[in-house]
């Protein structure tokens, strides 16, 4: 697969960087049988990047919802989603049939992640994961684990990591899978014997469907609906903002506290108008999470299990809401 980037300009790494690199190499040799010479040569080519650390400390998800949504709910991204869905209609239908995830949700995730493959990231993945794994104490253990998974992925799939590009957090390809997700959830949807998340739209589409299915997506179930509150705050109800929470409160209990759902979301984020579907979506024992977002004013939503499944892709309610609203916009604007 083609990667093109020149040698990275390096900042001066902290003193812990080289110690961490050597300890990591020894661990990979001991546990996975890598050649110490090969790893030393590969990782010696990685460069500490202060800009990556800086980006970790100011993520998009730190913004208020009114700013975050403007990044993704744009005419250009909606039109791009319509084009992507039409160009890949058969593959999206196949993924929807296989995994139960609506075509517009898969499309919207790819749109939010990389603008349908137009922005795959500008950082060398080795730079990102070595910088964070050896020089970002707050989450160093996690990123060393992802560097381990990247090297195992390279061995499994025959990937050339020298110039592979990704996000500042080391996410890969059109769906921006971190290496552990690539290894665990990516699928060979085109049947060519490889899982290629850069060049194969079939593998990209199938892998997004696979990921959500493996994170308990419920086919045909609701995702999220706006809510009206009688009291603020509702007595005895946990309300969250950006941080996801698995649905725990029944709609019956929410109703007792004066929380009223305002619309029907028929799985893919479109209104159903069908009384049977409405009854199933709002069954009294269905569980939901009450969410408050800082839009132009306070916005209240009920997020169901499928909304929570989207947050397993990116642990932010802002992210899941952007995916949901982009998927609706694509469907409503003619992306059938």
TrEMBL record:
Transglycosylase SLT domain ranges (all copies): 20-327
Pfam families per record: SLT_2
Active-site residues per Swiss-Prot or TrEMBL entry: 113
Record-level Gene Ontology MF annotations: peptidoglycan lytic transglycosylase activity
GO terms for biological process, alphabetical: peptidoglycan catabolic process
Name listed for the protein in its UniProt record: Lytic murein transglycosylase B
Protein's gene: mltB
